[in-house]
Design goal:
Blueprint (H helix, E strand, L loop, with lengths): L13 H20 L15 H21 L4 H22 L42 H19 L4 H20 L1
Helix pairs in contact: 2-3, 2-4, 3-5, 4-5
Amino acid sequence: MDPLHRPSGPRLTRRHVLTRVLPAVVVLPAVVSGCSVFGQNTAKAPDPLPGLADAARADAALAAAAIAADPSLRTRLEPLRAARATHATELDRMLGRPPSTAGAAAPANPAPTSTAPRSAASTSSPLSGTPRQDAPGVRQVHDAIAASATAAADAALVLPAEKVGLVASVAACCSTYAALL
């Protein structure tokens, strides 16, 4: 092939480079990386931490109610109740809220949390030995903890790095207790 003779075909002109190739080269990295060329998306998802703190308090209260209904559950549920109360306190601290004392002590008259039937073995009255239909049992505590584990794991995926450590720890703790109950 003669170096002075060019093969026929489309010519690459300066105008073609400036109008078609250069803009594609500039925009391509932003498109591939998922970044917006025209600015950041200002819509923020709601912060999941307040909901996680409220769920921790509710879980602690539910465990305390189950213990109050059946004191034989104390060895199984007291560590869970204490852990969830600590989770609520730490999540509140991260949010800048004053720590709540809800869930710190077992309530004298627990409120019903579900109308699902429970086994008599886990809901007997401590004084009479008869089943209390309004008291939560291990099944309700398990379901609440499993839901909290899922919520915390989902939240850990979208939180900034400075918050993810605590939330991932909460998710792991709840998952472990759900597996053990």
